[in-house]
Amino acid sequence: VRSAGCAIRSTALVLNDGTYWYAGNTFVSGTSAQNVLRFTQETTINTAIKAVNTIETSYIFLSDGTVKVASSNDRGQAGTGTTTPVPMSSLIPNLAFQGEIELGGELGTNLSGPSCIIKNDNKLFLCGLNSNGQCGVGSTTTNITTFTEMILTALEGRYVSSFCRGYSYTMLVDDADNLYTCGVPNLDGVSTTNVPTRVPDSLLPWK
Hints:
By secondary structure, the protein is an all-beta fold. It contains no helices and 16 strands. The strands form 4 sheets. It has a 4-stranded antiparallel beta sheet with strand order 1-2-3-4, with no helix packed on it. Strands 5-6-7-8 form a 4-stranded antiparallel beta sheet, with no helix packed on it. A 4-stranded antiparallel beta sheet has the order 9-10-11-12, with no helix packed on it. A hairpin with a 2-residue loop joins β10 and β11. The termini are far apart. The mean pLDDT is about 95.
């Protein structure tokens, strides 16, 4: 297995031969996700390199830098520019990456809406639900329907070392172990923001 992407109710696998397999509560086609009870191959894909899932959305990254998706897409989390359902193996338009990518899914919820987070060249890209500013793009537009670069001005040029996304927030850490949040952070003394904002050192046990 070359890559595995897991959400609460679904799993996707990329094998060493570039094939893509999925199981669990997966959006394949139609208007809602289906319970796929055994690993099933998407036969149109043979150059996959990475996979990541969120609730009712599957992202498949290909060796040429392009990305395919399947999604209920109620919040634009497929990144295709709409909020209409997107069937399995649809190509995300105007999205391609060169060089190494790192991926993060959505943590700790069974609610659809947030996209995955894509890191490439020390930039973060995401879309989907943004009513609290959790996409970090400088607005609270409810649905961001294309993958958009997060505004990382607060990092002052430092390197993004790790990141995660929940339903209503995004968090990231830089290479100096500073923590940043956007959206609703659920931390005492930290406000809701629509761009990543540094959390005071006084709130960080490792500082």
